Amino acid sequence: MSGRSCKGPFKILVLPGDGIGPEIIKEAVKVLKALGEKKGITFNFQYGLIGGAAIDETGVPLPEETVELGKQSDAILLGAVGGPKWDNLPPEIRPELGGLLKIRKVFDLYANLRPVMFFPELKNASPLKPEIIEGVDILMVRELTGGLYFGEKKRFTTEQGEQAVIDTLIYTEKEVERVVRLGFELAQKRRGKLTLVDKANVLESSRFWREITEEIKKEYPDVELSYMYVDNCAMQLIRNPRQFDVIVTENMFGDILTDEGAVLAGSIGLLPSASLNGKFGLYEPIHGSAPDIAGQNKANPLATILSAGMMLRYSLDCPEEALLIEKAVKAVLQKGYRTGDILEPGTALVTCEEMGDLVAEEILGGVYDEGLPL
Ligand code: NAD
């Protein structure tokens, strides 16, 4: 694979955000720089404002300048937004709604990818028994810009004078098609299994998703497709999570199931995510800005470092380099280094900064053969 174009120059928009955001982002950038040095890749990092930091400086949570910088970039790497300082602002100018949800909407980031990875070194951190969690490797794909969360909402009074409410679930054919197609493509590159999660026994929208999925399936004969009701999926994820490869689902079901997926791995400090529109994507850890530990050099930067790994894989066409980051993280964990959130007896406590140094050193040390599976 030496003829690949994983050399850059890549333009990365870095949005540290609030709370622990700047601390964890610093370590992810450090790791990318180490990778650049090791592999001769040019990364051009540009920094922008989002969230509370943007409100403090410009009065708005997503300045136009940030959007412009994003448009000129190959990908966006984000820390986290929000914190008590901005909690009492009107919702539309709060960091979460006016910053994070808005940037997802502006860039039409319709597919949210969350891998659920099993780290043998952390098997005791999971609430599930080791024999159930062992070997789990799931990629959850959640539709992110449609469905119930974005449909019309209203309150009204019935003819009988009773208060009532409507939330509208709406999906267009195109919205379903693009995310389901992505699911097939991702399954093709993994173990070839795709599960569409829905509630087709009750919901018309689910039957619509199934019809479209059946059509697309004809183009991917090598992918084994199955359907599962969302209630069953919630149960199967804790009974037998190894059965899943790629899961695709609509926005609200995905919201709930991806959080359930997150606990399988044990710590939210470890889980990365990607929000994609084709090849362009925004990469961020799944956790928030952790104001309780901000500024203390205690945060776990691994979810953000692994998010940078996803960026290499999905936006920059650098799958081997993504693997290198994942292997380096694994090696550091194998050597027994832990931030406070995943500390166990017999392991060594390190700071956020030390964790970043350790991963960068593993990469620069070059002890891994390219292409070796994890
Ligand atoms: P949180 O994820 O920030 O924190 C939950 C708990 O997990 C805290 O105890 C925190 O210390 C711990 N934690 C989180 N990330 C960690 C890490 N990397 N290392 C070690 N420990 C970690 O969730 P919250 O407390 O509900 O929210 C805090 C703020 O973050 C709120 O303002 C919320 O709106 C915002 N938020 C932002 C995002 C985002 O930017 N994507 C996501 C969720 C919440």
TrEMBL record:
<keyword id="KW-0460">Magnesium</keyword>
<feature type="site" description="Important for catalysis">
    <location>
        <position position="149"/>
    </location>
</feature>
<feature type="binding site">
    <location>
        <position position="259"/>
    </location>
    <ligand>
        <name>Mg(2+)</name>
    </ligand>
</feature>
<keyword id="KW-0464">Manganese</keyword>
<dbReference type="InterPro" id="IPR019818">
    <property type="entry name" value="IsoCit/isopropylmalate_DH_CS"/>
</dbReference>
<keyword id="KW-0432">Leucine biosynthesis</keyword>
<comment type="pathway">
    <text>Amino-acid biosynthesis; L-leucine biosynthesis; L-leucine from 3-methyl-2-oxobutanoate: step 3/4.</text>
</comment>
<feature type="binding site">
    <location>
        <begin position="83"/>
        <end position="96"/>
    </location>
    <ligand>
        <name>NAD(+)</name>
    </ligand>
</feature>
<feature type="binding site">
    <location>
        <position position="142"/>
    </location>
    <ligand>
        <name>substrate</name>
    </ligand>
</feature>
<keyword id="KW-0028">Amino-acid biosynthesis</keyword>
<feature type="domain" description="Isopropylmalate dehydrogenase-like">
    <location>
        <begin position="11"/>
        <end position="359"/>
    </location>
</feature>
<feature type="binding site">
    <location>
        <position position="231"/>
    </location>
    <ligand>
        <name>Mg(2+)</name>
    </ligand>
</feature>
<dbReference type="InterPro" id="IPR024084">
    <property type="entry name" value="IsoPropMal-DH-like_dom"/>
</dbReference>
<dbReference type="GO" id="GO:0051287">
    <property type="term" value="F:NAD binding"/>
</dbReference>
<dbReference type="GO" id="GO:0009098">
    <property type="term" value="P:L-leucine biosynthetic process"/>
</dbReference>
<comment type="subunit">
    <text>Homodimer.</text>
</comment>
<keyword id="KW-0479">Metal-binding</keyword>
<feature type="binding site">
    <location>
        <position position="114"/>
    </location>
    <ligand>
        <name>substrate</name>
    </ligand>
</feature>
<dbReference type="GO" id="GO:0000287">
    <property type="term" value="F:magnesium ion binding"/>
</dbReference>
<comment type="function">
    <text>Catalyzes the oxidation of 3-carboxy-2-hydroxy-4-methylpentanoate (3-isopropylmalate) to 3-carboxy-4-methyl-2-oxopentanoate. The product decarboxylates to 4-methyl-2 oxopentanoate.</text>
</comment>
<keyword id="KW-0100">Branched-chain amino acid biosynthesis</keyword>
<keyword id="KW-0520">NAD</keyword>
<feature type="binding site">
    <location>
        <position position="231"/>
    </location>
    <ligand>
        <name>substrate</name>
    </ligand>
</feature>
<protein>
    <recommendedName>
        <fullName>3-isopropylmalate dehydrogenase</fullName>
        <ecNumber>1.1.1.85</ecNumber>
    </recommendedName>
</protein>
<comment type="similarity">
    <text>Belongs to the isocitrate and isopropylmalate dehydrogenases family. LeuB type 1 subfamily.</text>
</comment>
<dbReference type="InterPro" id="IPR004429">
    <property type="entry name" value="Isopropylmalate_DH"/>
</dbReference>
<keyword id="KW-0963">Cytoplasm</keyword>
<feature type="binding site">
    <location>
        <position position="104"/>
    </location>
    <ligand>
        <name>substrate</name>
    </ligand>
</feature>
<feature type="binding site">
    <location>
        <begin position="288"/>
        <end position="300"/>
    </location>
    <ligand>
        <name>NAD(+)</name>
    </ligand>
</feature>
<feature type="binding site">
    <location>
        <position position="255"/>
    </location>
    <ligand>
        <name>Mg(2+)</name>
    </ligand>
</feature>
<feature type="site" description="Important for catalysis">
    <location>
        <position position="199"/>
    </location>
</feature>
<dbReference type="Pfam" id="PF00180">
    <property type="entry name" value="Iso_dh"/>
</dbReference>
<dbReference type="GO" id="GO:0003862">
    <property type="term" value="F:3-isopropylmalate dehydrogenase activity"/>
</dbReference>
<dbReference type="GO" id="GO:0005829">
    <property type="term" value="C:cytosol"/>
</dbReference>
<keyword id="KW-0560">Oxidoreductase</keyword>
